[in-house]
Amino acid sequence: MNLKESVETLLKDAKKRDFIQTVNLSINLTGIDMKNAKNRINEEIFLPNGKGRNAKVAIFATGELALKAKKVADLVLTDEDIEKLRDDKRKAKKIARAHDFFIAEAPLMAVIGKSLGTVLGPSGKMPKPIAPGAEPKPVVDGLKKSVRVRSKSTLSLNIPVGREDMDVDKICENSSAALGKIESRLEKGRDNIKSVFLSLTMSPSVKVEKW
Asked: Which of 84, 98, 107, 193 is 20 to 30 A off residue 34, Cα-Cα?
């Protein structure tokens, strides 16, 4: 089955649950040595239709950028907050778990790395730098429709690409975007992809033969 047929089959055959299930794209890789750090995948993937729930974005900022950020971000952290979190790792970890992406005013990157690198680094959430005079809204809006994919040492990637109540074509567009991004990251492209499956939170998987 091609991608659209796989999505249609998945949604048609799925047992109804008392909650809206997430559509997951599973990509199984082959011919890659994940023991080599340079082969591990840590990608930010933009989904054109979002995944059904906006990602949460936090911004480290000061001055004018902080004021702008309050209108668009889920959380704004100042330089004073960085100092407090440096001494309260428990709270820092709680904030890291609660947010999908972090942005930081470029001049703050060094102090964030020194103070919070041990918290944000291992989870792949080190901030994306932004210029002090930049407009944060386009960056935040893009991240709210994005997902982060990390392979670590496994040859299997699981990517949320939507929800079962989304239009089939929108799920297909998101899945194609995710597949394209991963292919572009692989040394041999599609030849490094062993198989692709779609599933819901609680459902059997459906194999995607063509995409």
From this structure: 98
d(C-alpha 159, C-alpha 164), whole Å: 14
Contact by Cβ (8 Å): 120, 112 = yes
- Find all residues with CB under 8 Å of 181, minimum gap 6, and list them: 43, 45
Q: What is the pLDDT of residues 146-200, one digit of tens each?
A: 999 988 778 999 999 999 999 999 999 999 999 999 999 999 999 999 999 999 9
Output the domain CATH number for residue 152: 3.30.190.20
Q: What is the pLDDT of residues 11-54, one digit of tens each?
A: 999 888 999 999 999 999 999 998 888 888 888 999 999 999 89
* R_g of the chain computed on alpha carbons: 19
CB count, 10 Å around CB of 156? Answer: 12
If one counts the domains in the chain, the total is: 2
**Which residue type, as a one-letter code, is found at position 80?**
E
What are φ and ψ of residue 205, in 5° steps? -90, 155
Residue type, 30: T
Q: 121: domain CATH number?
A: 3.40.50.790
Reduced 3-state DSSP string for 22-88: EEEEEEEECCCCCCCHHHCCEEEEECCCCCCCCCCEEEECCHHHHHHHCCCCCEEECHHHHHHHHCC
Q: Which domain holds residue 109?
A: 57-144
pTM of the model: 0.86
Q: Does residue 60 contact residue 112 with C-beta atoms inside 8 Å?
A: yes
Strand, coil or helix: 210: strand
